[in-house]
Specification:
The structure holds two protein chains of two kinds. By secondary structure, chain A is an alpha/beta fold. Chain A has helices at 36-52, 67-76, 94-105, 127-135, 188-194, 244-257, and strands spanning 2-6, 9-11, 32-34, 55-61, 80-84, 112-116, 139-149, 152-158, 163-169, 172-176, 200-202. Chain A has six helices and eleven strands. The chains are: A alpha/beta, B alpha+beta.
């Protein structure tokens, strides 16, 4: 069984977010980590490896610096790593990102493709399902549990108040939730080996069956027009209502006004 | 000369730091108060290979270097000095001598499970009458047919009773050296459960309370002849070689304790307000922090240098790291004691209360000036090399 996990290097939002003067994210100034949902997806794949002897490949698209998360994945136990990097791929929205990754996946053998539900920087949750669409694969999103039964996967798909149990024939694509599992640590020896391991690097020319018009900034139907910092909250106001009922009505009114409820 | 860490070492530090924060820190206070050996942490560390970091892969280890191992003990000790010394005693004092002096059979039988963390190791040298004067051994081993028969006792043994494999030193005869009659000391591997090998008093210590410190008792304890470690009569050299490496481990533990106390205190002085401002805004606090951070950095350089020197030794046995290890342990231990004491002071009354981590760190720091050779022994080693 072969599993490909798509992972993304994202800024560690716990370490604080910083912007460039032009409003774009200052990625150089921020700590970078493996996206948490992707890490859960990788852990799920590694458990399939422990259980069924699956071969796990990790794939990422990004700057050369993104090899850091590939090495982390190798140090956790992934078998192979692929970096897709090219100047023309920069500035991609979810469409251009998913066409790129689908183009890379066409070069690989897989029974299962796993992505995270969403990345904590863009927060769109679009790329996984779009990859599935490009490759004509069934997609099961929001997976909180994955089991294998012969040539089928059985997945619990989480909703707000329930979960569905879905069965799909492989090959298929699953998007994983961080709640899926507790990712394992790397091992010290795994880290030293990961820096000796070869990382396959692909550029534009290695993407299969992808048109130029669907790549990078030029191939993105959406454009970010403006990015701005969250407006800082002012000082709190002190209100002295006449009765507990008035207090509740006031708080509900405020929450409603701010679209919290 | 290069002071930047490799990317591998950066990543390995991130691993140790995450593990220490998530798995070790939440237990640190509880196991200290209950004097409880953290077996669950040892099992987790075994799972991730922390119990055999500098051991070659063919012997079940991680195949990483001494620097990575030192960083592991350092990061663990930042949040829990006890967890740091469990790894250190196991790796430096039990695995290292078997790996260095053992036969291929001994390595396969003992190093492999130890490095995988399936078994825990300990080192028995000290006796009630033989501490700094390690030549004053009373424990005896006599060859009887195919077995050595051990009689005597050892005290203050870290990982005692919890450990499965013990490297033990005993007198095997007398030799004449420069006209004087000296004891001939040899090293042995003894397994827990061997008839005649029992445990005595559990020590009730000031600090590193969760580490298991026991007296070992040997009463006609018979072990196979092939459990002699190294050549007969070479025990003293084996012990001294082992302690050189162990000192790097304890220096790393001391460094971690100092760093942990300093980090905690920096956070505290930013929050704690007196006279209308954070106490970190007072120049006394600032200068104390500056002095402590500078000493911690100096200690770190000595510790890392000693670890690097041991890695050079692994490639070229002519390289000696015993002076570097002695300097690192001496300085890091004294810095740990000074820094943790000052950090308690900067916490004021709260620093004296057990809910705050710094009082534990201060109690833990004191032992680093004593075990694996007191600060005075380190000064003897260093000055002997200077006056050679």
């Amino acid at each position: 069984m072969k599993v490909v996990v798509c992972i993304k290097q994202v800024p560690d939002t716990k370490g604080g977010v910083s912007f460039n003067p032009d409003g774009t994210l200052n990625r150089a100034a921020m700590l970078a980590i493996m996206n948490p949902d992707d890490k859960a997806g990788l852990e799920a794949a590694l458990r399939l490896k422990d259980q069924y002897g699956a071969e796990v490949t990790v794939l990422t698209m990004g700057l050369p610096k993104a090899t850091d998360v590939l090495r982390e994945a190798l140090a956790m136990g992934a078998d192979k790593a692929v970096l897709v990097t090219d100047r023309v791929l920069g500035g991609a929205d979810t469409w251009a990102t998913s066409t790129t990754i689908a183009g890379a996946l066409r070069n690989l053998e897989y029974d299962l493709v796993i992505t995270g539900r969403q990345a904590i920087d863009g927060d769109t949750a679009q790329v996984g399902p779009q990859i599935a669409e490009h490759l004509g694969l069934p997609v099961i999103s929001y997976a909180q549990d994955i089991k294998i039964d012969g040539d089928k996967v059985i997945v619990e798909r989480l909703y707000d108040d329930r979960y569905h149990v879905l069965e799909a024939k492989m090959p298929c694509l699953i998007t994983a939730l961080a709640e899926l599992n507790e990712p394992r640590y790397m091992t010290p020896g795994g880290i030293f080996d990961a820096f000796q391991a070869e990382i396959t690097t692909w550029g534009r020319a290695d993407l299969k069956d992808v048109e130029d018009g669907n790549l990078g900034l030029n191939g993105s139907p959406t454009k970010i027009a403006k990015a701005s910092d969250k407006v800082r909250k002012g000082a709190g106001e002190k209100v002295v209502p006449d009765s507990p009922e008035d207090a509740v009505a006031y708080i509900i009114g405020k929450l409603d006004e701010k679209h919290v409820i | 000369m290069d002071f930047t860490l490799s990317k591998e070492h950066d990543m390995v530090r991130t691993l140790f730091k995450d593990f220490a924060e998530n798995e070790v820190k939440p237990l640190a206070q509880e196991i200290d108060e209950q004097h409880r050996f953290p077996r669950e942490t040892v099992d987790k560390m075994a799972k991730y290979g922390f119990m055999g970091i500098p051991v070659p892969k063919e012997y079940g280890g991680q195949g990483a270097d001494t620097l990575a191992y030192a960083m592991c003990v350092e990061e663990l000790s930042k949040v829990c000095g006890t967890t740091g010394v469990i790894v250190s005693a196991h790796t430096s004092l039990c695995i290292d001598p078997i790996l260095t002096f053992g036969t291929e059979e001994q390595k396969q039988k003992y190093v492999v499970p130890l490095a995988k963390g399936e078994k825990l190791g300990a080192f028995g040298l000290t006796e009630p009458g033989a501490g700094t004067d390690a030549q004053g051994q009373q424990t005896k081993a006599v060859l009887d047919g195919d077995e050595w028969v051990l009689n005597g006792s050892k005290c203050f043994i870290t990982n005692g009773k919890e450990a499965d494999v013990y490297v033990i030193f005993a007198v095997t005869g007398k030799v004449e050296k420069r006209g004087r009659i000296m004891k001939e000391i040899s090293a042995f591997i003894v397994e827990k459960g061997t008839p005649g090998f029992t445990f005595g008093t559990k020590e009730n210590k000031m600090g590193i309370c969760a580490s298991s410190t026991y007296e070992l008792i040997f009463t006609d304890c018979r072990i196979p002849k092939e459990n002699l470690l190294g050549a007969q009569g070479k025990g003293f050299n084996i012990a001294m070689h082992t302690l050189d490496g162990g000192r790097i481990g304890i220096a790393s533990q001391a460094l971690g304790l100092a760093e942990g106390a300093l980090e905690t205190t920096i956070n505290y002085v930013k929050e704690r307000k007196q006279f209308g401002k954070a106490i970190g805004a007072f120049q006394n606090t600032q200068f104390q922090l500056a002095d402590m951070a500078t000493k911690v950095e100096a200690a770190k350089m000595l510790v890392y240098k000693a670890a690097r020197k041991k890695d050079e030794y692994k490639k070229d046995p002519k390289v000696s790291y015993s002076v570097e290890a002695a300097m690192a342990k001496l300085y890091a231990a004294e810095v740990a004691m000074e820094v943790t004491t000052k950090c308690v002071q900067l916490h004021g009354g709260y620093g004296y209360i057990k809910e705050y981590d710094v009082e534990r760190m201060m109690r833990d720091a004191k032992i680093t000036e004593i075990y694996e050779g007191t600060s005075e022994v380190q000064r003897m080693v260093i000055s002997a090399a200077l006056l050679k």
